[in-house]
Every structure is written in structure tokens, then in C-alpha cells.
Amino acid sequence: MFFSLKSLSITMAFLRLVVANIQDVQTRAAADNTQERRISYDPDLQQQLTFPLFELADPVTTINPTDANFGISAVAPGRFLTSADGTKIFTEARGDPSNPAIVFIHGYGHGAMVFDDIFNDPLWLNRVYLVRYDTRGHGRSDKPTNAAAWVSQRLAEDFDAVVQSYNLIRPFVLGWSLGAVQIADILSFHPPSYISGAIYDAGVPYLASLPNVTSPAASAVIPGLNETTNVTEFQSSYIDFINLCHPALEWDFYLGCLGDGIVQPRAILNLSFSRTQNSTGLLQAGTSGALSALAIFGGDDRIVLNQGILDAIAGWQNLTVVTLPDAEHFTWISRPVLFRATVLNWIGA
Ligand SMILES: *[C@@H]1O[C@H](CO)[C@@H](O)[C@H](O)[C@H]1NC(C)=O
Ligand SMILES: *[C@@H]1O[C@H](CO)[C@@H](O)[C@H](O)[C@H]1NC(C)=O
Ligand SMILES: *[C@@H]1O[C@H](CO)[C@@H](O)[C@H](O)[C@H]1NC(C)=O
Ligand SMILES: *[C@@H]1O[C@H](CO)[C@@H](O)[C@H](O)[C@H]1NC(C)=O
Ligand SMILES: *[C@@H]1O[C@H](CO)[C@@H](O)[C@H](O)[C@H]1NC(C)=O
Ligand SMILES: *[C@@H]1O[C@H](CO)[C@@H](O)[C@H](O)[C@H]1NC(C)=O
């Protein structure tokens, strides 16, 4: 079952009705103890249960430990793609491919799982084709630690592999936190028309802007994430980092965030933060009016400096700025309904 309790709790009245029916059917099915009987109760409900949960989601894939994925062994919905340089990228899509597509790019030290609340939400799934991937060096994807694997073009190629694999035509790109810098990588190798729009969700526009957009609290914690000798220092820094992203997460999700930190080689931090990137393509796309952007901020974000982000993209012609009141760095977890409405309205889904 892909629904989490949380995603169910945030949806609207009609969904509560469906949930009530599901529980009802499950109760009766349990009493009857036959799958056939359960289906015959209500074909419409069965349709709602299987769409989008099974038919329109990637199959469950076994992840076998290799050196390149840092020894991860697991099963998860999704599939591996091979990027141009051979790096295996773990990716997943849910929803109806005929809807507008959004590709979600997570931030540093996290994984694509951070978007679970969105990918489990029927109100998103009804309107958008949701695509996400573990960026190289993260989650279930390969984690190369040689500098050649971290030149800008390699990250653009990872996005290309996802676009090709799901036959996406001009998708929207939602970049969260440090993940948003990959929009600059993409636009160094493609014209602005390659994507339909850029969504900066508490997003860092490009790496050179980092000193101006990182909060003092985040700057203080980052060196500890890179710690390779003092385990106590590494552990407390990671906990501080996740708490700065949101101080009151559900326990399972909190552990998932810490887990995505643990599966990374420490060298990835240096490679992610200090690689070379050219912001010219991105800024030309924005200042020429060729690419529209939506910048979403958390009013209480403790990781990024909202004004610094706006300064870094000064002159962007078609820019919509929405600050979600009281929202933390995990904007969509703090304000799920407002976040969803903001994105869906802006993309016109
Ligand atoms: C950082 O901010 C300062 C002061 O506003 C500005 O002069 C500088 O150009 C900014 N640097 C970058 C890389 O955006
Ligand atoms: C390791 O880090 C902890 C927490 O930051 C610190 O208290 C301790 O002094 C450090 N140990 C060494 C040997 O540096
Ligand atoms: C990570 O640690 C290495 C080795 O100490 C250092 O060269 C690098 O600057 C650090 N990176 C960051 C982002 O702190
Ligand atoms: C950190 O990154 C810089 C720039 O990419 C590199 O010169 C340096 O060797 C790296 N340090 C470590 C410890 O990996
Ligand atoms: C950045 O890209 C632009 C073209 O988009 C190019 O003219 C410029 O030379 C590049 N800068 C560097 C440092 O490579
Ligand atoms: C600005 O972007 C929005 C969202 O993509 C679009 O609907 C609108 O037409 C654009 N406005 C202009 C003047 O290009």
C-alpha cells in the first residue's frame, strides 16, 4: 500500500469517503476471506484502488548491493537507468503519463524518498505525472567518487536519461534545496525550451550563489557532514541537519532522511558542493524571458536565505514568488495543501 497515513490525512472529503469504503471493503473481505468476493463488492472502488497504485506506478525492483551503490540491498518501486557515463540512476514515476510531467530533484544528503508525501497523494496523482530520481551520489543510485563523474555535463546527462526513459516532452523541473542547482547544469547543455518551467522549492539557483543563500546555521553544520574521523561529530551534525530541515518529522521519515545520509560516501559532499558549474545558460534563459520560474519559499526556512536566492536570479523576467507562511525547509511537509495548490495552479494542471 503506497498511501501513508499522513497523505491520507491531508486529502479532502471525497478521499475520506474512499478511505471509509476501503476499510469497509477490507473488513468484509477479511470476513469472507476471498479476493474475488472483495472485487465484486464495488468495481468502481476497485478501479480507484488499482489506479494509480499499481497500473500507473513503476514495478517494485530489487536493489542488489554493489560497490557503486555503496552496498545497498533493498526492494523499492522504481527502476535503474544507465546514464551516459555508465552511472546507474534509480528512478521512479507514478501517475498518468498523459498529464503534465514534473521531475523532482532532491537536495544534498537526501534521496528521492523525501517526496513520498507528494508521490502518495491522490490529489497530485490525478493531475500530474510524477517523476523522481536519486541523484548520483545519493540514495539507491551509484555513488562515483572520482572528479570526472562530477563535471556539470554528467548531472545534465542523468536528467536526460530520466527524460528519455519516461518519454517526457518538456517536463517541468522541481528542484529542492541544493538539488535545484541541477537546473543550471541542464540549461548549460540544452535550450530553455527543453523544459516547460523551473520550480525552485527553497532551491539554490547555482553553486556560485551558495555563500549568499546558505543560512549561518546550515553553514555551521555542513563541515560535520563531511567528518570522516570523529563519529560523534558526524552523527550529531546529521541529526542537526535533518532537524534544521524540519524540527518535527514523523519518525519513519526522519529515520529515512538519516538513512540517506548514511548510505553516502563522505567524499560526495566535497564533490557536490565544490564542483564547477556555469550559470550562464540558466540566467540567460530567465532574463531573456524564455523560461518561466516559480520560487517557493518556507517562511521559517532555517537552511536557505530566501532573499539571497532572489538576489541570485535578479532580472528573471517571468518569476512567481510564493512564500508559504510558517513553512520549514521541507516546505511541502509543512504546508502540503498550500504547496500542492501553488504548484498545480502555476503549471496549469
Ligand atoms: C553575493 O552577495 C553580494 C552582496 O549582495 C553580491 O555582491 C555578490 O555578487 C553575490 N555573489 C553571488 C555569487 O551571487
Ligand atoms: C568529536 O566531536 C565531538 C562532538 O562535536 C566533540 O565533543 C569531541 O571533542 C570530538 N572529539 C575529538 C577527538 O575531536
Ligand atoms: C570536506 O572535507 C575535505 C577534506 O577535509 C575538504 O577539503 C573540503 O573542503 C570539505 N568540504 C566542505 C564542503 O566542507
Ligand atoms: C575537495 O574538492 C576540491 C575541489 O574539487 C578538491 O581539490 C579536493 O581535493 C577535495 N578534497 C577532498 C579531501 O576530497
Ligand atoms: C559559460 O557558458 C557560456 C555560454 O553559455 C560561455 O560563453 C562561457 O564561456 C562559459 N563560461 C565558462 C567559464 O566556461
Ligand atoms: C509566465 O509564466 C507563466 C507560467 O509558465 C505563463 O502562464 C505565462 O504565460 C508567462 N507570462 C509571460 C508574459 O510569458
From TrEMBL:
Assigned keywords, A-Z: Signal
Domain of life: Eukaryota
Record SUPFAM superfamilies: alpha/beta-Hydrolases
Signal peptide annotation: 1-20
Record bears the keyword Signal: yes
InterPro entries on file: AB_hydrolase_1, AB_hydrolase_fold
All copies of domain AB hydrolase-1, residue ranges: 102-339
Annotated coiled-coil segments of the chain: none
Keyword Signal: yes
Family membership noted in the UniProt record: Belongs to the peptidase S33 family. ABHD4/ABHD5 subfamily.
Stated name of the protein: Putative oxidoreductase ephD
Organism of derivation: Mycena sanguinolenta
